[in-house]
């Protein structure tokens, strides 16, 4: 009697037949990966290398080790730019955390024409910084509108050149930066306000809370994560200020408005000292990473409390 072996239906298939790796999606991703590596990772790695060299574009790079970083520590102009950036922070960040919240509360009402006010407040955000800086430069001119209005109301006797005065130039630029960005942060706050359950507000009003108490005891606790996000974004944007300073003052007078990004630009593209400029760029990158980490911790803490 002969026996016939029946092949098992549950015989495991070879790994190659069992799991096929699709190549087509990776082919579509390849151009993006190449571009990202070429214009992001490769320049970053090159920057780390050139920060340890003396490089003046027309001459080959010469390895100097930590000399650029030692020169940075002894460079008074570098520390002036750091000090100015900190002053910008003290003026701009508190204003962008508080005033847009007030504006968002004002426009968070169901009134006729309220959408027009929202659009007006947001309009500076979508306007080119170059155009805005040029307009404000004329506004601050001795014969500009600001001096005319102040003299009209008797607040000053003589015209002031706000951008050529070492005491007023930096606050003048900081006010422009705050004004232009307020609409953006107002929209963020407005989205947060509209996500607050109406039951909380109505319950507070039933308990006899006035407008101020509703804001203090209902809005602010619910907006803690939004406030943390605003703090993160405004801090990072302030540290990277360049365009408005470049157009309005060029870093003057007497470096009183000079920021670190503008100083990096001057070293790299005016003096062509690429090695030193790259070292300052790496330092700016490190500062941004530290600030991002700190703000991230604050943001996580705000979300946990909220």
Automatic annotation (TrEMBL):
<keyword id="KW-0472">Membrane</keyword>
<dbReference type="InterPro" id="IPR000515">
    <property type="entry name" value="MetI-like"/>
</dbReference>
<dbReference type="GO" id="GO:0005886">
    <property type="term" value="C:plasma membrane"/>
</dbReference>
<feature type="domain" description="ABC transmembrane type-1">
    <location>
        <begin position="82"/>
        <end position="295"/>
    </location>
</feature>
<keyword id="KW-1133">Transmembrane helix</keyword>
<dbReference type="InterPro" id="IPR051393">
    <property type="entry name" value="ABC_transporter_permease"/>
</dbReference>
<dbReference type="GO" id="GO:0055085">
    <property type="term" value="P:transmembrane transport"/>
</dbReference>
<keyword id="KW-0813">Transport</keyword>
<feature type="transmembrane region" description="Helical">
    <location>
        <begin position="169"/>
        <end position="191"/>
    </location>
</feature>
<feature type="transmembrane region" description="Helical">
    <location>
        <begin position="21"/>
        <end position="42"/>
    </location>
</feature>
<protein>
    <submittedName>
        <fullName>Sugar ABC transporter permease</fullName>
    </submittedName>
</protein>
<dbReference type="InterPro" id="IPR035906">
    <property type="entry name" value="MetI-like_sf"/>
</dbReference>
<feature type="transmembrane region" description="Helical">
    <location>
        <begin position="86"/>
        <end position="107"/>
    </location>
</feature>
<dbReference type="Pfam" id="PF00528">
    <property type="entry name" value="BPD_transp_1"/>
</dbReference>
<keyword id="KW-1003">Cell membrane</keyword>
<feature type="transmembrane region" description="Helical">
    <location>
        <begin position="274"/>
        <end position="294"/>
    </location>
</feature>
<keyword id="KW-0812">Transmembrane</keyword>
<comment type="similarity">
    <text>Belongs to the binding-protein-dependent transport system permease family.</text>
</comment>
<feature type="transmembrane region" description="Helical">
    <location>
        <begin position="119"/>
        <end position="139"/>
    </location>
</feature>
